[in-house]
C-alpha cells in the first residue's frame, strides 16, 4: 500500500476517534477498513453518539477537524462524507484510491 494512503487512513481514523471522544457522547464505535471492488481502501467509522450537527461551524482554533479529514481524502483523488444516522450517531466514510505497485 502506498505510504500516502497509509498515512491518510491513519489520520482519518484517528481524527474521527478524537471527534467521537470529544463530541459524540458515544458508547460504541466501530471502525471498518476494506478494499472494495473499485480498488479503493474504504474506511468507515461509525458511532452511536448524539450525531453530527446539521450545520457545522468551521473551527477557528486549528486542529485537524472535519475539513482536514475531507482534504486528506481529496489529496489522493478520493472522497469523504460525514453522515448523521437516523438511528443516532455519525458515520465517517472515506474512499482512498489504491494502486498496487509491484516492487
Automatic annotation (TrEMBL):
Domain Histidine kinase: 11-100
Listed CDD domains: HATPase_UhpB-NarQ-NarX-like
Keywords: ATP-binding, Kinase, Nucleotide-binding, Transferase, Two-component regulatory system
Pfam families, alphabetized: HATPase_c (PF02518)
Chemical reaction(s) catalysed: ATP + protein L-histidine = ADP + protein N-phospho-L-histidine
GO MF term list: ATP binding
EC numbers for this chain: 2.7.13.3
Alphabetized InterPro entries for the sequence: HATPase_C_sf, HATPase_dom, His_kinase_dom, Sensor_HK_TwoCompSys, Sig_transdc_His_kin-like_C
UniProt-listed PANTHER family: NITRATE/NITRITE SENSOR PROTEIN NARX-RELATED, NITRATE_NITRITE SENSOR PROTEIN NARQ
Record's protein name: histidine kinase
The species this protein was found in: Paenibacillus alginolyticus
Amino acid at each position: 500500500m502506498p505510504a500516502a494512503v497509509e498515512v491518510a487512513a491513519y489520520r482519518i481514523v484517528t481524527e474521527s476517534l478524537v471527534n467521537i471522544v470529544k463530541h459524540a457522547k458515544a458508547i460504541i464505535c466501530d471502525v471498518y477498513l476494506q478494499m472494495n471492488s473499485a480498488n479503493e481502501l474504504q474506511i468507515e467509522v461509525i458511532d452511536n453518539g448524539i450525531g453530527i450537527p446539521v450545520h457545522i461551524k468551521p473551527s477557528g482554533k486549528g486542529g485537524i477537524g472535519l475539513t482536514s479529514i475531507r482534504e486528506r481524502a481529496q489529496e489522493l483523488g478520493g472522497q469523504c462524507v460525514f453522515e448523521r444516522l437516523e438511528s443516532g450517531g455519525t458515520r465517517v466514510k472515506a474512499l482512498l484510491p489504491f494502486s498496487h505497485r509491484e516492487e
